[in-house]
Design goal:
Blueprint lengths: L2 H28 L18 H4 L8 H6 L8 H17 L2 H4 L2 H10 L2 H8 L28 H14 L4 H8 E5 L6 H14 L3 E6 L1 H9 L6 E7 L1 H10 L9 E7 L5 E6 L18 H23 L3
Antiparallel strand pairs: 1-5, 2-3, 3-4, 4-5
Helix pairs in contact: 1-4, 10-13
Length: 312
């Protein structure tokens, strides 16, 4: 999701949650110590935005000091949080705000365990976000899609509001590791194949792309080769869930040489844990498929680590 759009969503969420928090606080105040049957409602930590984003305490210290242990007790406090978020995300020098070091620190500071507690986990319908109803879709059924024009308009609108470049977004989508300086290209390849065989990932394809480029141009080119691996039974389960996943199958790992002669091993990054807070019931995988998806990702990582270190 584009960076600024994320900030706007966070700000809007604060409006949606404030009334419910107020009811909880009032319920706590109405409870007396003598009433054992009184339903004591614990304070929601989201009443204090600095619990979710502790790095913000350094952004606007006066506002941070004004938020006491009771959290946001008024609409004025909520407005201060909104102003602070807007100031940080919207007015910072964009070249600095979109540096990966800054983005990484900010996103890692978010307390996702607390958010999971607020939402109750995936598909709990505790949020006001609209979502589809559960659909009973037969296995291996191709879904409807958008027209080329609709997709073009969708992605153009997203790119119009994204401060990230295409290079930035492609970099985020890639899982990559530098290869140790004492590991040669061929040694890295051997390590990948041996590790794949160890964990029963079938080696199903190889594309020495750099040789084709050199043959066509007659010039030297940085070495880049693509290796394909597959677990056929998991592939079948994934395709039963959504045949469109075929565009990602088989799993591909690339070994490339960059402009400085440094070797890198890369693959498409995908992680089912990204779905942990999904509220759409159709995004919740069954336990067997989820476990297999995690195993495949861990296996690809294991193969890549072999290439990066030269360990068999």
């Amino acid at each position: 999701m584009p960076f600024r759009l994320t900030a706007v969503i966070l700000i809007v969420i604060s409006f949606a949650w404030l009334p419910a928090w107020g009811q909880q606080v009032n319920q706590q105040q109405d409870c007396s110590a003598a009433d054992a049957n009184c339903a004591q409602v614990p304070q929601n930590p989201m009443q204090n935005p600095f619990y979710l984003f502790p790095w913000m305490t350094q952004t606007m210290p006066p506002v941070a000091s004004g938020l006491n242990a009771q959290g946001m007790s008024s609409e004025w406090m909520n407005m201060q949080w909104m102003m602070m978020m807007a100031n940080h995300f919207m007015n910072a020098p964009i070249d600095e705000a979109t540096r990966f070091g800054i983005l990484d620190a900010m996103l890692r500071a978010a307390n996702m365990q607390m958010l999971e507690g607020v939402m109750g986990g995936a598909n709990q319908a505790q949020m006001w976000f609209p979502s589809q109803s559960k659909r009973d879709i037969p296995a291996n059924t191709v879904s409807d899609s958008l027209s080329d024009e609709a997709k073009r308009n969708l992605y153009q609108s997203l790119m119009a509001f994204s401060p990230l470049s295409l290079r930035d977004m492609i970099s985020i989508m890639a899982d990559k590791m530098p290869v140790a300086d004492d590991v040669s290209f061929d040694d890295a390849v051997d390590s990948m194949k041996l590790r794949a065989n160890e964990i029963n990932f079938k080696f199903v394809g190889h594309s020495p792309l750099w040789k084709d480029i050199a043959a066509i141009t007659g010039e030297d080119t940085p070495r880049v080769e693509i290796f394909s691996f597959c677990d056929a039974m998991v592939a079948r389960k994934v395709l039963d869930y959504a045949p469109e996943f075929i565009v990602f199958i088989p799993c591909r790992i690339a070994l490339i040489e960059d402009a400085d002669g440094k070797l890198w091993v890369m693959t498409l990054d995908w992680d089912v844990n990204w779905l942990n807070l999904a509220q759409n019931p159709n995004s919740v995988l069954d336990q067997e498929l989820r476990a297999e998806a995690i195993r495949i990702r861990d296996g690809i990582r294991y193969i890549m680590e072999g290439a990066a270190t030269g360990d068999f």
